[in-house]
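User: Need the bound-state model for iron/sulfur cluster:
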Amino acid sequence: MSAIPSGKSSPERPGLEAIAVKGWLRANKWLFLRRLSQLGILALFLLGPWAGIWIVKGNLSSSLTLKTLPLTDPYVLLQSLAAGHFPYRTALIGAAIVAAFYFLVGGRVYCSWVCPVNLISDAAAWARRRLGLKSGHAPDANTRYWLLAGTLIAAGATGSLAWEWVNPVSILHRGLFFGFGLGGFVLLGVFLYDLLLAPRGWCGHVCPMGAFYSLLGRFALLRVSAARRNDCNDCMDCFRVCPEPQVIRPALKQVGQQSPIIDTGNCTLCGRCADVCSKNVFQITHRFNQRSES
Amino acid sequence: MNSIAGAAGAGCLMALGVGLYARQASALPSQALRPPGARGEAQFLSACIRCGLCVRDCPYNTLKLATLGSSVATGTPYFEARAIPCEMCDDIPCVKACPTGALDRELSDISKARMGLAVLTDHETCLNFLGLRCDVCYRVCPVIDKAITLEIVHNPRSDRHAMLLPTVHSDYCTGCGKCEKSCVLPVAAIKVYPIKLAKGKLPEHYRKGWEEKAKAGGSLIGDQIKLPVRGLEETAP
Ligand code: SF4
Ligand code: SF4
Ligand code: SF4
Ligand code: SF4
Ligand code: SF4
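Assistant: Bound-state model below.
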């Protein structure tokens, strides 16, 4: 690792300045916590099949924790409803609990703190930055909403959970405990798509599951605030690491809004912007905290 | 405007592709059986959210979730009789585990399950059809003497022995697959198929005379004239 020229940022390695100023630990705090959460959840599910300790059974589509708590993915259940099946109460309660949680906390918290595919798309984004790849371009960010509608229509038209045939999220999570089959190719496809064809393509532009959760979290309580935006020195590191870079500008640069709150369902609350900012511009707070300091 | 159209186009195209794939792949292959209580295949595919809770609660590891590329709908539970058959648990834990009702909790008596139907497919290799007494499929059947019986028929080859033919009765066969699993041949002569594949169907208007007669407690067209049997008077005792 080379010495870090302070006050300079490198497009390949955003966050160097933050490390220099805040120290490695504080410059990776949220990333570390997030990986802990993602891997911890995977570990809970894996304890059963690998070690015979059954705290959680099932997978992210539906699970049973400690033999009592049912949790069901509301998007998957919505597909089932669209396909024309009215499920048992267990699944409905499970979906209500999950939906209520993300409605309050923030829909796409699912994406950066739970979804295992995030590990793949983050890896692709990291590799793309480090390799300095500029190839390809991502489809319109609204593609995901059309696809979301499309998956529900496809469910209705085929009378089956059509998207679940290929949904990388389900394939990855289910595959770890029940076997992948050819599903591995879908995941490789997501990685290569993000790496070579479309920067932040899958999670940021295509995934209908992420689209669903972004709608669910539209009015959630937790929000990122660019509270010390006046300290911003335009190093651009936050834009480079953010999986949804378009969400930052309105709050940071006061484009079309006064409030420092990043008030959109598409911020994943990953906290990476807060990590890499050497000026501590960003903080994770609640939506009513309108203070902007300095 | 252009970008919206592009997004809509890309989104719809992908959804269409997936929909078509789902359509095409939604026929259950002949050797895959659904767990007990599974609703009809069409309804099952709309109900099952592919969580694997039924798989987890099966004490015999009978059930598996299909993976992408296998011919069963990705992520849905099934079993192959020749690999691990269903042991017909009294308490049916797989059905209890299902959160969605893809497995119907109305099924409380496992002998009412209809996972498939056993068919003695190969009359040329079944040892009992060769005139031997293997009987294994008959003996292992949990619904022995109802779902499967041995029917005695004359053995035309030796002309002096009997053949005891394993015969499956759809009123009682649960499709558990124990018979297929235990057939002693390298490839089973008796196999369990999804009912849709295994079962024929009579036209709606067909009536079986002997059944109608039994129901009515006598002939429906009154007594019939007894005609004399001509030409056989000599041989009659
Ligand atoms: S956008 Fe989709 S794949 Fe990406 S993290 Fe969110 S749910 Fe997972
Ligand atoms: S704005 Fe910050 S917290 Fe939100 S997605 Fe971007 S980097 Fe993550
Ligand atoms: S009845 Fe028992 S053996 Fe058969 S599939 Fe269900 S849990 Fe498994
Ligand atoms: S428990 Fe029900 S919903 Fe889950 S995989 Fe089995 S049949 Fe499908
Ligand atoms: S599948 Fe075979 S063993 Fe099972 S009930 Fe039917 S005849 Fe008996």
